[in-house]
UniProtKB/TrEMBL annotation, chains A, B:
GO CC field: cytoplasm
Family to which the UniProt record says this protein belongs: Belongs to the class-II aminoacyl-tRNA synthetase family. Type 1 subfamily.
UniProt-annotated location(s): Cytoplasm
Catalytic activity as recorded in UniProt: tRNA(Asp) + L-aspartate + ATP = L-aspartyl-tRNA(Asp) + AMP + diphosphate
Name of the protein in its database record: Aspartate--tRNA ligase
Sequence positions that bind L-aspartate: 169, 215, 438, 479
Length: 575, 575
C-alpha cells in the first residue's frame, strides 16, 4: 500500500508501507512517525510495549530516513481531518531501515524559504515537495490527454532528429561539432518546422510530436535553453480546419485537467484590432480595459507633446483603490521603459479633476472622455502620445501593469482568443529590409499575393496565434505548398539566389514534387503547464531546469572538457 | 473521405477525395487515375462525355500531382480484389489541381530499386511508400501502447534535459559549446541514468520516458548517432518486481501490435549458462543448437591444437541441406575473424565419417559425440579448441551463422528470455583494470559484496537483460541506494578520490539523504520497432535517419558555419 492510501476500510488489515520519515515525535514509550511517499502521508506508531527491538530501531529514525514498516491498520485516537489518511494509523510490528539520511540542507516542505540556488543545487530534495511533484504529474497527465486526443484523430507521432541542420533566418542555434565530418556542425532544432513540412510532402497526412526544442538566446525570466513544444501539422486543410481541431484539443485539456468547460468556437480577433484595442498581439482579456483613440478629443489642444502624435488612453476605475502620486510616477517610468516619451494622467474623483495636463483641459474634454471611456464612477485615465506603434505598445504594457495592481489578473479565470490576420512581414530597422512576422514558410492570403513585390506591408498571412490570459500559448499558419511561391517569398525577403539555394535549396525542391495544402501549429508546452498549474515560474514545471545563465546547479553542466576531446572534434577553445 | 476508405456501402454518395496521382491511364474518352493517400488507393474516373472542362483538367494530370476530386461513388465494372477499395470507383464531377509535380527522381513503390543514397536524399519521396509509412505508424502505435500501459501502472513520464553534463565512464559524448559559460560544454545524454536515479532519490516512485539518447561512436550497421530509449525506473522494488512488470509490458506490446500471446513468466537463464551453452549473452533461442563441452571426449587425443584448450562443438543436422567444402572453408574464416585459431569439423553421413581431424578419431569418439549431441541422423559437427572465452564466443557466432544458412531464424517466431546473474565487473586489458559490466550504479548481489576488494571477478550484479531472437532488447539493474557502497564500487574500479569527487561527487552526496531501493530498465525502442516490423535495417523505422558517416542526405547536416558563430561560442576550427 502507498502512504496516501490508508483508509478506515483498511482497519484490521496487515500491510507494509514504504517511505521517508517526514517527522518523528518520541514520546517515551511511544514514537509517532509521519511516513511520506509520493501519494501522501500516513501516521505510523511504534509502542515500546509491543516489541522492544522494533522500538529500538524506531528510536534511530531521523528526518528523511527511508524505511519499510509492517503492521496493522488501526483507528486513530485523535483524527487529523487535514489529510486523507487522518482517520487511521499503522501500528508497527516490524521495521526495516532501507537507507539512513544525513540532515538535508533544505526542508522538505513547500514554505521552506530556501534560496533558489539551494533549491536547484539540491533539486532531488526540492522535488520531494508535494507542490513540485504535483506539477510534474500534471505535466505528464496533460501530455497524455494531448496524445490521446491526437491519436484518436488519426495523428501520427513521428520523431524528428535532434542532430539537425542550422536554422537559417532563425534565432541563435546550439551547435554540435561533428567528429566524423571535419569542421562541420549539427544544430539542435529550434523547431521541427522544415521536417514536419517534409512529412506532409511525404503524405503522412497528420503529424504531431511533443518535442524538445532549443534556442541559444539570452535567457529572460521564464525562458529555458531547451523547451518543449506540442508540434502539429495537417494536410488538405485550411485555417478553419486547423482552428477547429485545435480548439477541441484545448477544450479537452481544460476539461480533463481543470474540469472547466470551454465554450466553442473560441473568440477571434484580428491582429490590427488587438494592437489598436489592447496595444499587444496577445491581449489579456480577463479584464475589459481598452485603449481608446483620443486624437479626436484633443484635436483642438495646442500642446507640443500632442502634435502629430497618436494619442491613446486607458481608463481604470478607482472606486476601491486609488493610485498614489508615487505609483503614477512609477508607471510613468514604466511606459518610458517601453519607449514612450511620457505618461499623462487625468483623475476624475467625485467630479473633481486633477491632471498632469490640467491647464489644457476643458469641461468638454472631460465630457468626451467620460463618453469614450463610458465612465460612471471615479476613474483615472492614462494617456500616451507618441508614434502609433509606441503609443499602442506602451499603453498595452501599462494596461497589464495596472490590471495587476488592481488584482484583475485572476489566476483561476481563463480568457482565450485566437489572433488572426497577421501581417506577413514586418520591417526590420536592424536589417534594413522586411522580415517574416511568423516564418518564411507562411502562406500569404491569396488576394494579397499581388502586393508581394510592390507593397509587402499590405500582405496578410494565413497565420494564427492562440492567446490565453495575455500569453501566447501557440501559433501557426497555413504553409506555402508551391515551390514557385516559396521562391517568391524568399525574394521578397531580399535573399539572393545564392542564399536561397544554399539555405533552402532542398526545401524548395521538395515542394516541387507534389505538395498538399498543409498547415499546423505549435504550442508552448512548458507555458501551458505553468498556466494549468497556476505558477509564474517556469522552473516549477520542469524537473531539472537551468539557471538564467543556462547552468544546471545540480550536475554542474556545462563543464570543462579535455583538450583531447576537443581535438577529436577538430576544434579548440579560444580564451 | 480518405482514399483507402471508399467501399460498396458508399455507392451513390457524393464525396471528395484528396491525394496524389499514383498512376494515370488515358484511354481517349476516359481517364483512370489511381489516387493515393496515407490510407490507401482509390480508382478515380474522368469521362469526357460528362464534362469536357473537367476532362481537360484531368488530361494535365501526371504522376504525383496533388488533386482534390469530387464525384459520385459507383460500382466498378472490373473489380480489383487486391485493394480494399477495389469494388468501387469515383465518377468525377469536379477537380482541383492543388499542386503540380515535377517527375520524381525515385519511383513511389516499394520495389523501386533506388540506391540508398537516392532514397535518403529524397526521403520525403521515399516516405510516400506504404511500407515506410506503415513502419512509422507501427512505431507511433507501439509508443502509445507503452505509454498507456505505464500510465495505467502509475508511472509518471518526466522529461530530463538534453543539454546535460558529460558522461563519466561512458562512450564518447556529443558536446555542445556554451556561449554564456566560456570554454564550457554541455553533453547530449547517452542515457538519463543519473537523472532518473535523482528522480527516485526525489521520491517520484515510478518514472518513465521515451527519450532520445546520443552516442558519438563509429557507426556500425544499424546504429544511429541518436536513438530512442524507453527508460523506466521504480522505487521500493527488487529484481522480481521489475521483471514482473516489464514482462507484462512486453506481453502487452506483442498482444496489441502482433496479436501474439506471450506466456508469462518468460524463461530466464544465467549469464554463465548463456555463455557456456550458446557462447553469447544474447542467445537466439528460436533454434535448439547448443554448444557442448568436448574436453572429456577428446581427453585421450594427443593433438597439439587440443592441448590445454577448451574444446567445444555444435552439431547441425544435414538431412536436407549439406554444407559444401567451400562453405565450410568460409565458416572457418568466419570463426577466425572471431578470434579462434581454427575450425574442426566431423561429418557423419550414413554412418560414414569424414573429418578435418579424421586421423585422431576412433569409433569410441564418434559414439560419445553421438550421445552428447543426441544424433539420430546425418550431422555435421563443428569444433573449436581455444581459450575458453574465444572457444565460446566464436562458436556462439558460428551457431547463429549456420542457423541463418539453414533458415532457422524465422522472422515470424519470437523467442524471449531474461539473462540474469551477470558478473559485476569485467577485466579490461586496454585499461589494465576491472570495469563495470553494466554501469557503476549497478547493485552487487548482497552476498558477493564481501569479494569487492579481494576477488572482484566473483562479484555478481543484480542486473538483467531481456533478449529476443538473439538481440538484446533491453537491460537494467537494481541500483545502489547507499552512498558508502557507491563509493566502494568506484574504488573497486580504481578511481582516485579526486576522480570520484569530480565525476560523481554530487551523485554520491545525493544518495546520502535517504535513498529508496530502486532499479530500472531501458529498452532500445528502434530495435523493438525493427523486430515488430520485421526489418533488419534501422533506417526503415526512423523518419529521417543518418548515414553511416552520420550525415543527413536530405538537409545536408552537419554543415559549415561562419567564423562569427564559432567566435560567439569561444571556439575555432582546427584544420
Amino acid at each position: 500500500m502507498m502512504c496516501g492510501q490508508m483508509r478506515k476500510e483498511d482497519i484490521g488489515k496487515e500491510i507494509t508501507l514504504n517511505g521517508w520519515v517526514q517527522k518523528e515525535r518520541n514520546l517515551g514509550p511511544i514514537i509517532f512517525i509521519d511516513l511520506r511517499d509520493t501519494t501522501g502521508i500516513s501516521q505510523v506508531v511504534f509502542r515500546k510495549e509491543n516489541d522492544e527491538d522494533v522500538f529500538k530501531e524506531a528510536e534511530k529514525l531521523r528526518s528523511e530516513f527511508v524505511v519499510a514498516v509492517r503492521g496493522i491498520v488501526e483507528e486513530r485516537e485523535s483524527k487529523n481531518p487535514n489529510i486523507e489518511t487522518g482517520d487511521v494509523e499503522l501500528n508497527v510490528k516490524s521495521i526495516e531501515i532501507l537507507d539512513e539520511a544525513n540532515t538535508p540542507p533544505i526542508y522538505i516542505k513547500d514554505d521552506d524559504n530556501a534560496s533558489e540556488q539551494m533549491r536547484l543545487k539540491y533539486r532531488y530534495l526540492d522535488l520531494r515537495k508535494k507542490s513540485l511533484q504535483d506539477n510534474l504529474k500534471l505535466r505528464a497527465r496533460t501530455a497524455a490527454v494531448i496524445r490521446d486526443f491526437l491519436n484518436s484523430e488519426n495523428f501520427i507521432e513521428v520523431e524528428t532528429p535532434v542532430l539537425t541542420n542550422p536554422t537559417p533566418e532563425g534565432a541563435r542555434d546550439y551547435l554540435v561539432p561533428s567528429r566524423v565530418n571535419k569542421n562541420s556542425f549539427y544544430a539542435l532544432p529550434q523547431s521541427p518546422q522544415q521536417l514536419k513540412q517534409m512529412l506532409m510532402v511525404a503524405g503522412m497526412d497528420r503529424y504531431y510530436q511533443i518535442v524538445k526544442c532549443f534556442r541559444d538566446e539570452d535567457l529572460r525570466a521564464n525562458r529555458q535553453p531547451e523547451f518543449t513544444q506540442v508540434d502539429i501539422e495537417m494536410s488538405f486543410v485550411d485555417i478553419e480546419d486547423i482552428i477547429a481541431i485545435n480548439e477541441r484539443l484545448i477544450q479537452r485539456i481544460f476539461k480533463e485537467i481543470k474540469g472547466i468547460d470551454l465554450k466553442l468556437p473560441l473568440p477571434r480577433m484580428s491582429y490590427n484590432d488587438a494592437m489598436s484595442r489592447f496595444g499587444v498581439d496577445k491581449p489579456d482579456l480577463r479584464f475589459a480595459i481598452e485603449l481608446k483613440d483620443l486624437n479626436e478629443v484633443f484635436k483642438d489642444v495646442d500642446f507640443d507633446l500632442f502634435k502629430d502624435k497618436t494619442i491613446k488612453g486607458i481608463a481604470v476605475g478607482e472606486s476601491e483603490k486609488e493610485f498614489s502620486r508615487k505609483h503614477i510616477d512609477k508607471l510613468t517610468s514604466f511606459v518610458k521603459e517601453h519607449g514612450a516619451n511620457g505618461l499623462f494622467w487625468i483623475r476624475i474623483k467625485n467630479n473633481e479633476i486633477s491632471s498632469s495636463i490640467k491647464k489644457f483641459l476643458t469641461e468638454e474634454h472631460i465630457d468626451k472622455l467620460k463618453e469614450i471611456f463610458d465612465l460612471k464612477d471615479n476613474a483615472l485615465i492614462f494617456i500616451v502620445a507618441d508614434k502609433k506603434e509606441v503609443t499602442e505598445t506602451s499603453l498595452g504594457a501599462l494596461r497589464n501593469e495596472v490590471a495587476e495592481s488592481l488584482g484583475l489578473r485572476d489566476k483561476n479565470k481563463y480568457a482565450l482568443t485566437w489572433i488572426v490576420d497577421f501581417p506577413m512581414f514586418e520591417y526590420s530597422e536592424e536589417d534594413g529590409r522586411y522580415v517574416s512576422k511568423h516564418h518564411p514558410f507562411t502562406h500569404p492570403v491569396d488576394e494579397d499575393i499581388k502586393f508581394l513585390e510592390t507593397d509587402p506591408e499590405k500582405v496578410r498571412a494565413y497565420a494564427y496565434d492562440i492567446v490565453i490570459n495575455g500569453d501566447e500559448l501557440g501559433g501557426g499558419s497555413i504553409r506555402i505548398n508551391n515551390s514557385e511561391l516559396q521562391s517568391k517569398i524568399f525574394k521578397a525577403l531580399k535573399l539572393t539566389d545564392e542564399e536561397i539555394e544554399r539555405k533552402f535549396g532542398y526545401f524548395i525542391e521538395a515542394l516541387s514534387y507534389g505538395t498538399p495544402p498543409h498547415g499546423g501549429i505549435a504550442f508552448g508546452f512548458d507555458r501551458l503547464i505553468m498556466l494549468l498549474a497556476g505558477t509564474n515560474n517556469i522552473k516549477d514545471v520542469i524537473a531539472f531546469p537551468k539557471t538564467q545563465s543556462a547552468t544546471c546547479l545540480l550536475t554542474g553542466a556545462p563543464s570543462k572538457v579535455t583538450d583531447d576531446q576537443l581535438e577529436e572534434l577538430h576544434i579548440k577553445n579560444v580564451f
